[in-house]
Amino acid sequence: MGVDPLKIAIRGSTQEHLPIEDIIDGMVLLKDGSCVSILQISSVNFDLLSEREQGALIFSYGGILNSLNFPVEIVIYSNTKDVTFYLNNLKKAEEKQTNMLLRERIVQYRKFIEETVKKNDVLSKAFYVVVPFSILELGIKSMSSQMMGGMPVFTKKEAKELPFAKSYILEKAKASLEPKKNHLSRLFSRLGLEIRTLSTRELIELFYKIYNEDTAAVQRVSSLNYDSPMITTKENPKS
Fold this sequence. Notes:
It contains 5 helices and 8 strands. The chain is of the alpha+beta class. The longest helix has 24 residues.
């Protein structure tokens, strides 16, 4: 008896060219069997610190990097900030304001923001630390995928099955990554910085924004099934 092709889950054509196999339990599983956890770090306004404070911060940061006995990747993600919602709130405040002097001040401030946005892009920045779990830790002797910018790049021919069962890889990756993440949390907390691991939902949203820069600002992903981020076909209701 033949298999109904409409009931076979298929991967979207774009997904064939991405290095990501799945995102589960706050970990990104790559197609070669390696994994990464991504931690977001709060920022410090370095320019507002005194010269002494700046020197102490640089010294402490250098000490953190020198103390690590495992590799990490520091990523700064910048994207254009949409200030439409903020401007709409200013417009509402302007309409509700009964004091004519205050209303005029709000109008001037709103026009200043609008002109600033027209002349310069308003950027928001997020800071991440990527902690990798290598397939070498699974006992695989070499990594066959090409590397570019710290992430594996696969050709269609190279996109084969995982070297081990997904559950086994995730179990090993979690055991390796958890102590590393805890160690990083303790180190960065000494600098007065908050650091936390991104959840599965936050990881999906982050990669969605990275790979869909043009539409991410207006198209939300709240309707996604976060337990199954891959694209699959719908079953035929008549079958």
